[in-house]
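Work Package 3 committed the consortium to producing structural models of liganded targets before the mid-term review. Because experimental data for this complex are still outstanding, the team generated a predictive model from sequence and the ligand definition alone, so that downstream docking and mutagenesis planning could proceed in parallel. The input record is reproduced below exactly as it was submitted to the modelling pipeline, together with the SMILES string for fe (ii) ion.
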Amino acid sequence: MSKTYDNLMEAFAGESQANRKYLAFAAQADKEGCTQAAKLFRAAAEAETIHALRHFSNAKNVKSTAENLQAAIAGEVHENLNMYPGMIADAENEGEKGIARYLDMVCKVEGIHAELYKDVAAAPSAAGEDYYVCPVCGFISKGAFSGKCPVCGAPGEKFYTVK
Ligand SMILES: [Fe+2]
Ligand SMILES: [Fe+2]
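The resulting structure, written out as tokens with the ligand in place, is given here.
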């Protein structure tokens, strides 16, 4: 890969992080009553998303949906089988039990994401039910959800749908 490709992907990573960082900062600014700072954080978050998406497409990493689904599966499987297990072990070794439990929850959710992607990859243009997301752990349910989140125990009424 070229230096330009590497630069675009490095910038994509940075701008993607800046987007979420600014949204977290905006929520904190709202809590402190700093509304102008909150507005600027949200505006800048939008701008960084524009940059991130343009970097990613200029790097030619948006392909056909069939290919994108395979990329998504590979990413989720990597997180589930390699990335988070290593991080959980590191947290345990450092005595960060709470962080280890938290990462274990996220790790489980990534495995479920991988399975959902595999289902859709089998028939990418088939219609299906809407998805519902747990606001606590990121578990995704295919179809309306009631009861408690199977991963974190959050109540089903808190789930929200994404189309
Ligand atoms: Fe995921
Ligand atoms: Fe959950």
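Reviewers should note the following from the model. The chain has a mean pLDDT of 97. These observations will guide the Year 2 experiments.
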